[in-house]
Write a structure and sequence with these properties.
hpI Integrase, Chain A; 2 domains; 3-stranded antiparallel sheet; 3 strands; 49% helix
Length: 316
Amino acid sequence: MLETKKSQMVIDQQSIGTPYIPIHRFKKNFLDYYAEFVEENKRPGNRHLQGSLNQFKLFIKKPRILPIEITENLSKRFRTFLTNKFTGKTPADYFRAFKRVVRSATKDGYFRIRPAEDVKSKTNACKKLKEFLEGDKYRSLISEPLRNCEFRDAFIFCCYTGLRWCDVKNLRWSQIKDKTLTTAIIQKKTGKPVELTLHHIPQKILEIRKDKIRNVPKRSNTQKGRPVFSLPTADGANKAVRKWVKRAGIDKDITWSCARLSFSIVLQDVNTDAATVALLLGHTTTRYVNETYKRHRPKDQSATMAKLPDAEWDYN
C-alpha cells in the first residue's frame, strides 16, 4: 500500500503542467464523483444539487455506475424520469443540477464530450391548479379541533410563515429569537438568512409549546437544538391534513405545500407588493411570485364584473 502511494505521488509530480490526468485520480463509481461534487458545492437553502443526486440514485436503481455509462441516451431517460415524477420547475431544476455535475466531470477528464450537453432541461406544467386556503378558511381550520397537535400547530405555523414542509420539519428552537424566525434560506445578495417577524398566532403556538417542554427533562442536547415540531413522514402529514380539512367543511384538496401558496396569496390579497412577498418566501426575485405563488382565478368573480362601466339600457 505504501509503495502504491509513493508511485501515485511520483505520477502526480510528473503530470504537473501536462494535460495528462493520472488514472488513480478518477473515481470508478460516478456516484462517488457526484456525491463529492454535491458536498463541495452545496449552499444553505439550495437543495437542487442534493435532490438531483437522490433522484439519480433512484433512477439508476443500483449502487454503482461507471462514467462510461453516462451517455446522452441515459441523460434523456433521466430527464423523462424526472418529468414523470415531478411537476412545475422541479424537473428542470434537478436536471440542470445533473448537467452541472456532468459538465464539471467533463472538465476533470471523465468525458471527451459532454454527454448531456444537447439534452435540454424541461419543466412539467401541472394540469391541475394547486388549491389554497382563503383568509376565512384559515379561521375555519383553526376552529376545527385536531387530536394531533403536532400536525395542527405545524401546519398553521406554515400558513402564517410560508415555510415549506422540509423547513418546518427541521425547524429548531435556536432559529427562534423573541418575535423573529431565522429561516434556513440564505439570501443570495446579502449572504444572510431570511428573517421573519412572526404574526401573533405563530407566536402563541410557540409560547404554548415552550410551556409544555419546560417540565420535560433535558437530554444531552439543549432545548435550543431540539426540533420545534415532532413530525412523521410527509405522506402521513398530508393524510392527516386532508382529513382535518374535510372535517372543517373545506371542499378543497389541501396538502402541506398549499400552506406556502396560501401564505403568498393571502398577503397579495391585502395588496402586499410582489417584492415583499418574494422576500418573505426567501426568493431573490419576484419571478416565482408572479408565475407560481399567485392567484390563478378571481377571488370574487361577481365583484370583479361589477367594476365594469354601468349605464341604463333602454333598448328592446
